[in-house]
Amino acid sequence: MAYQSQGIEVQHFDTKTGQNLDIQETFNNTVAEYLFPETTFTLGTVYEGDKTTEQELQRFENKSLQFANGKKFYFADDDSVRNQLFPTASDGAAYGSLPFTPCQKFTEVENIRVLVIDDETGENNADL
């Protein structure tokens, strides 16, 4: 069954002032929308030349920093989002834009069997 994207609206804000900007961005067909439909995201921007402090990135409107990429910092009202996608906080910083990158489509498949094969040994621990 193919997933129908509704898109997620993400409000931008200034991390220095903590004020909302007049920018809303819609992300369609993203992993963030698919996996976290009840989560509200906000996008903070850090401007070149400004020294944003760690304190300014702690929380925004009851949202915590979950992902980062370049000058974009993604905040969410669910503190567990990053840990569900990335094993370390640094991965959330290095690959933070991936959950918001558009995909062609999502397909849900139920009741499937997956065979995992070690690419070095060819071992699969299964009787085929």
Report the mean per-residue pLDDT as an integer.
85
Percentage of residues in strands: 25-35%
The number of distinct helices, counting runs of at least 4 residues, comes to 3
Order of adjacent strands in the largest pleated sheet? 2-1-3-6-5-4
SSE string: EEHEEEEHH
Major pleated sheet: 6 strands, mixed
Structural class: alpha+beta
Shape: globular
Percent of residues in helices: 10-25%
Indicate the topology.
Layout: E1 8-14, E2 20-27, H1 31-35, E3 41-45, E4 59-60, E5 63-69, E6 72-76, H2 81-85, H3 89-94
Parallel strand pairs: 1-3
Antiparallel strand pairs: 1-2, 3-6, 4-5, 5-6
Feature tags:
128 residues, alpha+beta, 6-stranded mixed beta sheet, 27% strand
Model description:
The chain is α+β, with helices and mostly antiparallel strands and 128 residues long. It is 12% helix and 27% strand. A six-stranded mixed sheet has the order 2-1-3-6-5-4. β1 and β2 form a beta hairpin. It starts with 7 loop residues before the first strand and ends in a 34-residue tail after the last helix. The mean pLDDT is 85.
Provide a compact summary of the structure.
12% of the residues lie in helices and 27% in strands. It has 128 residues and is of the alpha+beta class. It has one domain (8-100).
